[in-house]
Each structure stands twice: as C-alpha cells, then as structure tokens.
C-alpha cells in the first residue's frame, strides 16, 4: 500500500468531523451519516492514486448521506454519497451544471478528477 497524500489526509480529517455530528444535526431531525455512506466516502478518498489534488469539502446530507465537493478554476465536481453507499456526481463549469449521473467504480471518479484538473480548468492570469 502506498502512503496517503496530503489532500487525502486533509479529506479524512474533514470527513471525520462530519461523521461526528449528532442526531438532529440540522435541527430538522436528520440522522448522522450512515456507516455505508462513511465507508464509501473513505474508499473513494483513499482509492484514488493522484498525489497532488485539492482536499474536498465535506458536508452532511439530510437522510444520512455525505457530499464531497471540489473546485478547480471554473470547474466543479460534487459527489453525493447516499445513505446506502451509492454515489451520484454533478459536474459544473462556471457554476453551470454540465454533467450528472451515477458512479459505479473508483475509475469513474478518477476520470472525473482528471477532467477537473484538465488544462481547460486552469486559469492563467495575463
């Protein structure tokens, strides 16, 4: 096994903070993230072999899910991990949705990360 990258370690810390939320964390009766959602989030985070990346934002989702968010230049990626551990994605460009759907493998997530990091997403100041 390879060592975790700094972005992965930071992502795990953020994930652990969200996983420690109590019952009714949103004052609307939501339960904390489920074990299935937590396991999927951890597997997605540690299963990607990109050394230099941006640590994700992590937010809880009503009903026991999690959302991980990345923004690089004008592009954004959101992975919503549902309470049953399934994953859906949303890609945005200049804050406008440009793709969405289910995710079934870590390789699909890796492809989305590579899209996020592709040259079109990096703005160079003139």
Brief account:
This protein has 126 residues and is α+β, with helices and mostly antiparallel strands. 30% of the residues lie in helices and 28% in strands.
How are the strands of the largest sheet arranged?
A: 1-2-3-4-5
Number of helices: 3
Q: Would you report the number of β strands?
A: 5
Global morphology: globular
Largest β-sheet summary: 5 strands, antiparallel
Instruction: Kindly report how far apart the N and C termini lie.
Output: 42 Å
Low-confidence spans: none
Amount of helix: 25-40%
Helix-strand category: alpha+beta
Provide the β-strand percentage band.
Answer: 25-35%
**Quaternary structure state of the chains depicted:** single chain
Average pLDDT value?
A: 87
> Could you tell me the radius of gyration in angstroms?
15 Å
Query: What's the SSE pattern?
Result: HHEEEEEH
Summarize the SSE layout with pairings.
Layout: H1 6-19, H2 35-46, E1 57-61, E2 65-72, E3 75-81, E4 87-93, E5 96-103, H3 106-117
Antiparallel strand pairs: 1-2, 2-3, 3-4, 4-5
Helix pairs in contact: 1-2
Structure, described:
The protein has 126 residues and is of the alpha+beta class. Helices cover 30% and strands 28% of the residues. The protein contains 3 helices and 5 strands, in the order H-H-E-E-E-E-E-H. It has a 5-stranded antiparallel β-sheet with strand order 1-2-3-4-5. Strand 2 (65-72) and strand 3 (75-81) form a beta hairpin. Helix 1 packs antiparallel against helix 2 (35-46). It is globular. The termini are far apart. The relative contact order is 0.16. The mean pLDDT is 87.
């Amino acid at each position: 096994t390879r060592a975790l990258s700094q972005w992965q370690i930071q992502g795990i810390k953020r994930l652990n903070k969200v996983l420690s939320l109590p019952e009714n964390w949103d004052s609307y009766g939501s339960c904390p993230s489920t074990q299935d959602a937590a396991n999927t989030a951890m597997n997605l985070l540690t299963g990607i072999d990109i050394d230099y990346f941006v640590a994700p934002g992590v937010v809880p989702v009503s009903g026991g899910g999690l959302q991980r968010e990345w923004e690089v230049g004008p592009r954004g990626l959101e992975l919503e991990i549902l309470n049953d551990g399934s994953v859906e994605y949303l890609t945005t460009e200049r804050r406008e949705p440009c793709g969405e759907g289910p995710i079934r493998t870590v390789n699909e997530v890796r492809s989305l990360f590579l899209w996020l990091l592709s040259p079109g997403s990096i703005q160079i100041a003139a």
